[in-house]
Specification:
By secondary structure, this protein is of the alpha/beta class. About 35% of the residues lie in helices and about 20% in strands.
Length: about 290
């Protein structure tokens, strides 16, 4: 739905040739980072056709002024810019904004970008090549954290998981093993799995999509180059999701996707987390657990 003041996406989205890659950019009060973010779109060395699809989720700062400034620069370099949004009193959330940005875009592949992050020039080129080879996979990449010393342990985990661990560690992590700000996939596969949950603030829309992706047999691939500056700051949307919410989704997915295939299982080293896991399981799952080794 387009609010007054936003041109219809269809009118903005006309192009003489099919678009290969759409960069999907939801925006909400991002004036502090947008110049650097949009500049990184302009600097991409991908030689195919590319568009930037922006959905402004009720920003009250100068985000739209910055976007309009960059629109001319981007289109002057051959990157189509599609802008949608609304100016309601309150934002409708990241899931809604991503879905809207995807709906108004036309590329065969989707490159997700957060408005506070910065792409390295080779990101679209390298991830597009990987996505062509793996059409039913989510393609991620390694990241460089900003500030450099923030979440050091988490950043090492993101960057150093072995290919098989991208799947085996989905139950031990606090979120997707291929993190959302690095996602790249085909539009056809996104349409098969999605859309994102639009529950709004506090809903881990990336984790829910990730689980559905795995349910439908999707693969996980990481380009082992640092292709994204991944910014950490108190206002990031990820901080609105409670740890207990993520835990609940993780346990339910474990019970759905793994435990039905096991006759029994053991919780080793049953400290605080092990006891918490046991208490979180349904009665049926607890019956399969025959010992808690300490």
């Amino acid at each position: 739905m387009q609010a007054s003041g936003y041109p219809a996406a269809a009118a903005l989205g006309q192009a003489s040739a099919p678009v290969q890659v759409s960069v999907i950019l939801p925006v909400h009060d991002a004036e502090l980072w947008l110049d650097e973010c949009l500049g990184s779109v302009l600097q991409q060395d991908f030689e195919g056709s590319m568009e930037l699809s922006i959905f402004n989720d009720a920003s009250k700062d100068k985000s739209m002024t910055i976007i309009e400034k960059w629109k001319e620069k981007l289109e002057g370099s051959g990157i189509l810019v599609v802008i949608g949004g609304h100016d309601s009193p309150s934002p409708r959330g990241v899931g809604y904004s991503k879905n809207q940005a995807i709906a108004q875009s036309s590329g065969s592949y989707l490159c997700f970008l957060d408005s506070d992050d910065v792409m390295m020039p080779q990101r679209v080129r390298l991830q597009h090549a990987a996505a062509v080879r793996h059409p039913t996979s989510i393609i991620g990449c390694q990241v460089r954290r900003e500030p450099p010393n923030s979440t050091e342990r988490y950043t090492r985990w993101i960057n150093q998981l072995a290919p098989d661990q991208l799947l085996t560690q989905v139950f031990t992590s606090n979120g997707p093993t291929v993190i959302m700000p690095t996602w790249f996939c085909s539009r056809a596969w996104f349409s098969h799995v999605g859309p994102f949950d639009e529950g709004g603030r506090g809903v881990p829309e990336d984790l829910l999509f990730f689980h559905e992706h795995l349910r439908k047999g999707g693969g996980l691939v990481r380009v082992d180059q640092s292709l994204l500056l991944y910014r950490y700051h108190p206002g990031a949307a990820t901080h609105s999701v409670l740890e207990t919410t993520i835990w609940t989704h993780r346990v339910r997915f474990l019970e759905e996707w793994a435990l039905p295939h096991w006759a029994t299982f053991t919780i080793w080293n049953a400290g605080r987390q092990g006891r918490r896991l046991y208490r979180s399981l349904t009665a049926g799952s607890r019956c399969k657990q025959w010992s808690r080794s300490s």
